[in-house]
Amino acid sequence: MLSMKPHDSPPFASLSADDALAERVRRVLGAEPEMSGCRIDVRAKGGTVTLSGVVTSAEMALRAQQLALSVTGVDMVWTSLVWHGSRGSRSRPDS
Question: 90-91 and 76-84: which strand pairing?
């Protein structure tokens, strides 16, 4: 799944800027009580953030994407989050 903001960022960012952006996204996700129980890996490169891991529902996958996109410096969010349904089944979002 892909989400984009309607503005551009520089095509290249330094490693430290990418690390700082990923850390800001992690902090925003971690500060959200509804995200407890979710295991999300965050990677950033040049304004593009990739979220991967396990969340509790499809709604939490969407919420994580929205939260990441709300962080200053994030222009695009790719997700490959997997969620567990209420009956223990695993699902993947459409790509």
Answer: antiparallel
